[in-house]
Each structure stands twice: as structure tokens, then as C-alpha cells.
Amino acid sequence: MGDRLFRITNGVLLGLVGLLMLLPFYYVAVVSVTDPAEYVQQKLILFPTDWSFDAYHYLISTPAFARSIGNSIFLAAVGTVLALIVSSSLAYALSKKHFVGRKPIMLVILLTILFSPGIIPQYMLIRELNLIDSLWALIIPALANGWNVLLMKNFFDSIPDELAESSFIDGCGDIRTWLYIIIPLSLPALAAFGLFYAVGFWNQYFLALIYLNDSAKWPIQVLLQSMLLSGNYTDLGSTSGYVQPPPSQMLKMASVMIASIPIIIVYPFLQKHFAKGAMVGSVKG
């Protein structure tokens, strides 16, 4: 009886906490689709009587906002694919005991986890590489995260060596073994790390603020922060034909939703792999 009471109480409390967590997101979504005339009359809206997507239409029709969305999509798509290729190939090489220089390279990777060079040396390096005002300044330094590489290596260590040896007998080299044997067996891990990389690239803000001086190359997070602080949405250059744009609060809510929706859409497709990949490297037999 005590265990049943605990489970019921625990479920009720966690349900209430979950509702409290969802309430701000629900309010942002509701305000973003409320008719501007209704929003002006009622500042607190829990369920709109008249629905309107004017705020989304206004934002998407602006060249600056559409351009920033394109920059973020480029960062998330290209950055995630390249990061998975570089990290997984490096981790697979380090998982091979006969790999020359394996221990020194692992030591260097471990040092990058323990010690950070700081913002100024990173900026000087990016400047010397002529990557200032380039989206590649946000992609190249993040291609091989040391922690992710070590976790991937532990996952590759758990794959029996006999699989690779059988592929070598059939005439495959290291690259073909990695492509046709290791990668298909590592989809749960790659899905989990891909989600981490995609979220990181999509949410690029601080480094973009440092390296990108041209506002035309800003990702969505930097533009969103600029709009939220200034509250000025009239400089976006809307081509939607609005004489009077929707209220700034509605535009803020709509911009927050646009910045959040892509990751929310992607997550359910990776969730089934994420549950397995989240335990990568935690257990090794």
C-alpha cells in the first residue's frame, strides 16, 4: 500500500512539475498565433478566440530573418554532418590498438577537455586563418569535440574485432570497413551525438557574436537576441505589405517559436536511437 501511494504521489507531483514547465512554452505559442486586435485588447491570453499567423508571416517575409534562418540551417546541417564524419573516423582510428601514435593523440584530446585556451587565443587563431566573418569559423573548431570522440571510441571498443577481421579477409580496407561495417552498427550512437551537434550548431550565439561582424551572416540566435533587446522589428525590411506590423510582443513570441521548432521537430525522429545512444561508453564488457 505504501509503494502504491508513493507511485501515485510521485506521478502527480511530476505531472504538475511537467505542466509548470510546459506553461511558459504554451503561453509563447498561444500569443504568437493570436489575432493582433485581440492581443491589444487582452494582454493575458490563455486560449485565443481569433487565430492569426500574421506574426509568422511578417517575420518570414523579412529578408534579414529569412537570411538568419538559412545561416542557422547551414550551420546545423553542414556542421553536424562534418562533425560526425570527423569525430567518428577519429574515434574509430583510436579504437585500433595497432594505430601508430594512438596514446599521444589520446593524451592531446584529453588535454583539450581538461584545459581551454581561452577566448583571446581562439580569436587570434580564427583571425590568422582568415575565418573572421565566415560561418566556417563556427564549424571548423567544433568538428572534433574531445569528449564526444572519447565516448565514440569507447563505443567502437565494444564492437567485436572479429567483424573488422572478417571484412579484411573479404578484401575490405579500413575505410570500407568503417563505412560498411562500423557505421551501420553505430547508428544509435551517431544519432545521439548528431542530436548534440545539431543543437549546438543551431544554438550558436556567443562565438557568432565574436567572429561575425556582418549582420547578414548572423544565425537566428544572434538576430533574435538583437531583436529582443532592441524591441525594434521595423528594420527587418518586411516585404509582406504590412502598413502596421503586428505588436512587438507577438513578434518576439513568434521569433522564439521559429527558433525552437526545428529542434522540436527533429527530436522525435531521433528519440528511438537517442535512448540507446545516451548510454554510449557507460558500460564496457
Descriptive notes:
This protein is an all-alpha fold and 285 residues long. It folds into two domains: 2-32; 54-277, MetI-like fold. The chain has helices at residues 2-32, 36-41, 54-60, 63-94, 102-114, 119-128, 136-139, 146-157, 161-169, 174-185, 187-202, 206-211, 220-230, 248-277. Helix 1 crosses helix 14 (248-277), helix 3 (54-60) packs across helix 14 (248-277) and helix 4 crosses helix 8. Belongs to the binding-protein-dependent transport system permease family. InterPro entries: MetI-like, MetI-like_sf. It is a multi-pass membrane protein. It is found in: Cell membrane. Its main location: membrane.
Write a compact overview of the structure shown:
The chain has 285 residues and is an all-alpha fold. The protein has helices at residues 2-32, 36-41, 54-60, 63-94, 102-114, 119-128, 136-139, 146-157, 161-169, 174-185, 187-202, 206-211, 220-230, 248-277. Belongs to the binding-protein-dependent transport system permease family.
